[in-house]
């Protein structure tokens, strides 16, 4: 396992991070189901666990906290807040009012006194970034969080946060968490240039495109009952649904990538994970394993490195900066739906 500095901090994080979106009723219901996965990841050298308050409505954080009892000092915990966590109008977003509550709630669920990396889960266009950075600064000073980060921000929002931090002498976001895979390369257009400019670490989620880049799905063929395509709903289901017509172009690219992986002597999943590791601006890739077998197979790819020829061949299949499915971008600004909503009204 390789360890890399998180941006311009002194914090070293493992190249592969364990994502816990499947901890809880979204995937593995009990602590006993999740413990082998977490134990295996830690034994392999993973030192950063990524979760969020919204994952299984807080259950993921609770399970992570229980499983890390007695070894908290050896593990870095990253969590996120901002998505709706209740029916109240102020139980979401990045206001001072909610972020303080959200952090306290996450600390309680995690059973810890501090969070190593607290990330704004999605941009909040209704709250000035200065307001959010003020409360994050207070939380850093109080010792409740060590570092602040963002997630699903666009390049201009990353820059705005950095400028606001400098102008107001507030806590600076040190990381950005974005979706990135061979099939979803949109962050290469400008986001990765912005993070490099400001020395921001980048954690990427969905490097296997929700499981599509494992090769287990076949276009036009119904998925198995225990797969994400069957279990998830909404956008998550759309991304991996093998019967969704809009996914045909992705499956055509996957077939070519499968051939390339075989020619290079590796699995498609290892090719996909190594691709995200090849970009110099990427700090770590987040794994989202539901079973111990999936985790072990992914971990086998920690030492896989892609040659320039293989990277060039990938570019010929999915060009740099191209995203084959807009649903995979992670966050779509509300204003993109303005015209459609106006016409419907």
Describe this entry's structure for a reader.
- With 345 residues, this protein is an alpha/beta fold.
- The chain has one domain (3-344): NADP-dependent oxidoreductase domain (TIM Barrel, Alpha-Beta Barrel), CATH 3.20.20.100.
- It has helices at 31-43, 59-67, 96-110, 129-141, 155-168, 191-197, 228-231, 234-240, 248-264, 268-278, 292-299, 308-317, 338-344; strands at residues 3-5, 12-14, 16-19, 48-50, 76-81, 115-120, 145-151, 175-179, 201-205, 284-287.
- The chain has an eight-stranded parallel barrel with strand order 3-4-5-6-7-8-9-10, surrounded by five helices. The chain has a two-stranded antiparallel sheet with strand order 1-2.
- It is globular, with a radius of gyration of 19 Å.
- Major sheet details: 8 strands, parallel, barrel
- Poorly predicted sequence stretches spanning 5 or more consecutive residues: 340-345
Total of DSSP H or I helical runs spanning 4+ residues: 13
**CATH hierarchy class name:** Alpha Beta
Query: Average pLDDT, to the nearest integer?
Result: 92
Global shape: globular
What fraction of residues sit in β-strands? 5-15%
Distance between the termini: 54 Å
Protein structure class: alpha/beta
